[in-house]
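Reference record
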Amino acid sequence: MRKLTLLSLIFCLGMHLSAQNISIAKQLVDTLTSTTMWGRGYTKEGNEKAALFLKNYYQSAGLVPLTGKDYYQHLSFPVNTFPKNMELTINGKTLQPGIVFIVSPESKGTKTKGNFIQKDSTLFVDPNKRVIIELKDKLTWSVAPEAKDYTSVEVLKSALAEPPKSYSINIDNKVISSFKTANICAAVKGTVQPDSFVFITAHYDHLGGMGSDTYFPGANDNASGTTLLLGLASYFSKHPQPYTIAFVSFTGEEAGLIGSKFFAEHPLVPLKKIKFLFNLDLEGTGLEGATVVNASIYKKEFDLLKAINDQYKLLPAINQRGKAANSDHYWFSEKGIPSFFMYTLGGIKAYHDVFDKGATLPMDHYENLLKLMEEFVARVQQ
């Protein structure tokens, strides 16, 4: 993975890019998925470093804070973290965290050993010590706001030659009752109606780290959407529109759409002034096209998006989908704001795991996605 310092990357991004080319975009993904940002989560200041990077990017690109003098919209929420020990031995075999096992996000920490009782073909428990092992075909991690009174671990089924019998475990957890974070909010002021807004959004957070040596890079989810958003910020900073174009990088999406919910409940601009919101999440491919959530609700805007795609031959297909509470558009559409969430399709199997890396992210339709969004944002104001 190519490593760039924050200052050197921002210097590169200061060049006029016709938004971004693919090389710069890949540098951005590499930076956002680096060990420095540690999964843009809750340990090793990963989320804080990502927020600072975005704020500096917007400032360097010439965007102003959405309101006032501060790019940050501060908020906090509880989260269960795993900052240190992450060790598991089953049947005398030491297992690798992230690759062979993950701790369930609601687990408490424990240091103990014992033997399992088999409940079924995939579930094994030590009821006295409140330790649970569940065999899985794929490991998928998430975020929890609290710790329960047990320790649950998912183990890759294919890694064990025989069912779990004995174990030794050493896992630390720490509940942060008020994790401090922020949405990062910037804008390019409109030239004709600056009090009307088109919002472009993407969450910058991911899952962070699990123990002191394992982290989840979050390349497709959502360094890809963040990179596309930053490309559009670079483009529109040099091509102002009649409406103000707002760029909001949400925090806390993986913890339950928390950052976007907070913004919708504490808006920095009147919600009725937002003419359209376009949310970007999972934008790392496009080999099989893209799907747009809320397309069946906002048919006029979806027809516009498809017409642009047909005109320029950008994606193989753009599919429509109805309402879904699956990303940060949701709270805005619930308040009656026309909103899309677009995600790309094809070629990526990694999701919420340690394999969602920048090095294997295709980004095969990145520049086409930029063009699609540039044209849509310009025409949706007409």
In short: The chain has two domains: 6-78+177-380, 85-171.
